[in-house]
Amino acid sequence: MVTMKDIQNIRDNLKKCKLADVVKSSDKPLNNREAVRQLAPTLLKMRERGFTTAALVDLLQEQQITIKSRDLSRYLREYTSHAVTPQVKSTEGEASLPSMSITNTDGY
Predict the structure, then answer these.
(1) Torsional class of 74: left (φ above 0), alpha (ψ -120 to 50), beta (otherwise)
(2) Quick one: how far is CA 46 from the chain centroid?
(3) pLDDT given for residue 19 in this prediction
(4) ∠ CA 34-35-37 to the nearest 5 degrees?
(5) Tell me: the pLDDT tens digits for 61-108?
(6) Cα separation of 42 and 36, whole Å?
(7) Helix (H) / strand (E) containing 76
(8) Nearest to 32 by CA among 63, 85, 70, 75
(9) pTM higher than 0.85 for the full model?
């Protein structure tokens, strides 16, 4: 179990960290799903211009990203569904609903 003293020690240690002490995000290796997520806007525009999924797979292969057509299609679908669907965050694990204020003008 972590105590408040442990938290303070952790906080102090984190403050001392330098950027060189951690892996820079630009140097982080990406898996195929993460790579497609980063490239999704470009890949989707290419699809709109008439590129097939197979052609995109071939182009990605030339760039050292080996991926199956089925996986590329699924990752792009995931990207578009997350980009279109707003995420509602909940603090208690229950569905959050927008708050409404109801003004009673009739005096009831």
Answers:
(1) alpha
(2) 21
(3) 60
(4) 65
(5) 999 899 999 999 999 999 999 876 555 555 555 454 454 445 555 554
(6) 10
(7) helix 69-84
(8) 75
(9) no
Structure tokens at 60: 């990605």
Residue 16 has pLDDT above 90, yes or no: no
Distances from the Cα of 104 to the Cαs of 66, 98, 108, in angstroms? 62, 19, 7
For residue 6, what pLDDT band results from cuts at 50, 70 and 90?
confident
Owner of token pair 């927008």: 98
Written as six digits, the tokens of 33 are: 């799903």
Distance CA 84, CA 75 (A): 14
- Answer yes or no: are the C-beta atoms of 88 and 95 closer than 8 Å: yes
